[in-house]
Amino acid sequence: DFSVEGQTHVLVYTQSSLVEQTTPVGSAFNDSIAVVRNVSFTDLDLDSYELGGNVTWEDPPLWQRPDLV
Questions:
Q1: Would you say which domain of life the source belongs to (predicted)?
Q2: Is residue 4 domain-resident?
């Protein structure tokens, strides 16, 4: 947990042994809570000590989504 007071965006840079991404990907965020179900992650085992794969989940019902209330 950390404070996001006054913060509106997050930037993500990626790096690997092959290349470093010099242009970050940014996204706006809000500090809200919703419960998701059926979270799933299957590691593709790309390299030892690294994770790779898709994370999927089932969205909460519309009445529970803070961005739609």
A1: Eukaryota
A2: no
